[in-house]
Structure prediction request, 205 residues.
Amino acid sequence: MIEDEESFKDYLVYKKSRRLTVETANSYIDYLNSIKKHIDVDITRDHFDSIDAVKNIIFGLKATQMPEASIRNCQSALRAYINFNRSVSREYIFPEEVVTFTEGTATSIKVNKYERDINARRACIAHHKAICKVCKFDFSVAYGGIGMGFIHVHHIVPLAQIGKKYVVNPKVDLVPVCPNCHAMLHRKNPPFTIEELIDLISRKP
Prediction:
């Protein structure tokens, strides 16, 4: 199975410049998965991020029994996957989000800023899904394709309180929250916990 299969499918159907049908998107995924069967190559963003990678895979496929038409389809799917990865890498990270596996080295700009790595954000969302942990808001449900994957990521323990490098567990230390709930979590210092904010919402008149 390719990495981020569902996100890639959503990209093909909702975000690609020429939107594909669900059937065609599924066929792209099938072709990418077939590569693993023929030449034992995993399609992941870390190991597959350039046109040269496409050329190498196509070269490998041509040495197998895969039909030429299928190889061409694999090539189209691979190029779409590269574009998908590039669109993800341009994903906007909100300044107040903390999104790093190894974090905490302060640099001085106008305020203290901490080193961040988008991989932790992705890992958090992959585990928890892009749904607010507090109010359960899902931007894709409310806004359709343009809301797909949109969410803030909240660091349970603020980096300013830690002040040193440490290894973040994105499944435990980070949680997805909508912008409204994210702002409310930070209405006090230290921030409200997720449970406290859920309780506040449940007790409102």
